[in-house]
Amino acid sequence: MKIAVLPGDGIGPEIIAEAVKVLRALEPAGLHCTFSYADVGGAATDRFDDPLPAHTLALARESDAVLFGAVGGPQYDALPRAKRPEQGLLRLRKELGLFANLRPARIHPGLESASALKPEIVEGMDVLIVRELTGDIYFGQPRGIRTLESGEREGFDTMRYSEGEVRRIARVAFEAARRRGRRLCSVDKANVLETTQLWREVVTQVGQEYPDVALSHMYVDNAAMQLVRAPRQFDVVVTGNMFGDILSDEASALTGSIGMLPSASLDEHGKGMYEPIHGSAPDIAGKGLANPLATILSAAMMLRYSLRQEAFARRIEDAVESVLRAGLRTADLARAGEAVIGTAAMGDAVVAALCGSQP
Ligand code: IPM
Ligand code: MG
Is 245 in the pocket of ligand 1 (CB under 6 A)? Predict the structure, then answer.
């Protein structure tokens, strides 16, 4: 199995190294992957003046799956939009047709006290956010900054979704709900925005094909509030690109740290790209402090969804659980006074747990 590895910027290379370490540790057990590296994001802009060079895109296309670190950094903020690191990621999603973004946010037993919320509120939280990833205001045209007759400038973007785009992401979400708690909450702003009024109609139509899944609808402002008030009420949440971006960061803080949330971005055929939902964290880059678990858990999702290796995926997830249960913490997860380990030590601990020795 051929994996394209795109470490990117900031902490990207450090966390990716740990995920690759964990995948390699499964070789003796029969998992055989080849890893081909390429630049993306700011690292690619630096070397090739393009955040998604043609050879990186070609490698991603010809691989069975893509493992992605993170992109971005303050040194790139002044660049024209097309050269900014984020464009590397957004174009990759669009070019590969990765419309379905799965972001599971669950509280790992033992991490309740690391959550931003009271332990009794987050205990048992297990939400799957299904975020549409190639449409919405992220990609809608026209967009730009123009000068009005008055001489004042105006910025504008276009929120748009076609019925087909809503239908296919709704199907992914209903199918996921079927395999879980059979509850789906669709999040929109149908009281204000036409785009999401259509979204709600189409999701409701698709719901008729899934009578076994309980469908509800919620406005995004209320959903943001309910997520911190009573997160256990949610099973699967489906929403558009921008609302999903925001709600998934919010959900991550409930699970203890943004450093814990993996993601899978899938196309129509299950080919995918796997990345932690957090960013490049330039403030801690190169210091060996970053939490690699979101990336390691993303590698597990890769084994499950693109490589169909459920047993290996489980083994990685169990190893992460046991490391957390043993009390190992990177800085983002630790409470005051708790001992802290670095990025590589956390990766080593997961490998040790995988190989059956005590972390
Ligand atoms: C994410 C990130 C990206 C997004 C950025 C880096 C473009 O925040 O994956 O959630 O907005 O989708
Ligand atoms: Mg985000």
Answer: yes
- The four Cα atoms 283, 341, 312, 62 give a dihedral, to 10 degrees, of 30
Q: How far is the CA of 95 from the centre of ligand 2 (A)?
A: 19
Together in a domain, 258 and 272 = no
Is 275 found in the same domain as 292? Answer: yes
Residue whose pair of structure tokens reads 């992109």 in the numeric block: 71
* CATH number of the domain within which 208 lies: 3.40.718.10
Catalytic residue, chosen from 9, 50, 76, 138, is 138
Residue-wise pLDDT for 201-218, tens only, equals 999 999 999 999 999 999
Q: Which residue has tokens 């690191």? A: 85
- For the segment 61-84, the average pLDDT, to the nearest whole number, is 96
Q: Please give the pLDDT value at position 358.
A: 47
pLDDT, residue 155, reads: 98
Residues 6+ apart with CB under 8 A from 100: 130, 132, 133, 168, 169, 172, 265, 266, 267
List the domain range (segments joined by +) for residue 53. Answer: 1-99+267-359
What number of other Cβ atoms are within 10 A of residue 155's Cβ?
8
If you measure from the C-alpha of residue 107 to the centroid of ligand 1, how many angstroms do you get, rounded to a whole number? 22
Q: What is the mean pLDDT of the chain?
A: 95
Please tell me the predicted confidence (pLDDT) of residue 113: 84
Cβ of 86 less than 6 Å from ligand 1:
yes
**Which of 157, 245, 295 to mutate for ligand 1's pocket (most ligand atoms within 8 Å of CB)?**
245
Q: Output the CA 275–ligand 1 centroid distance in Å.
A: 10
Q: Does residue 44 share a domain with residue 22?
A: yes
For the chain, counts of helices (H) and of strands (E): 12, 12
Helix (H, G, I), strand (E, B) or coil at 159: coil
> Which residue's alpha carbon is at the smallest distance from atom 11 of ligand 1?
245
| Cβ-contact 146, 154 below 8 angstroms | yes
Q: Which atom of ligand 1 is nearest to the CA of 275?
A: 9
Q: Does residue 277's CB lie within 6 angstroms of at least one atom of ligand 1?
A: yes
Residue nearest to atom 12 of ligand 1 (CA): 245
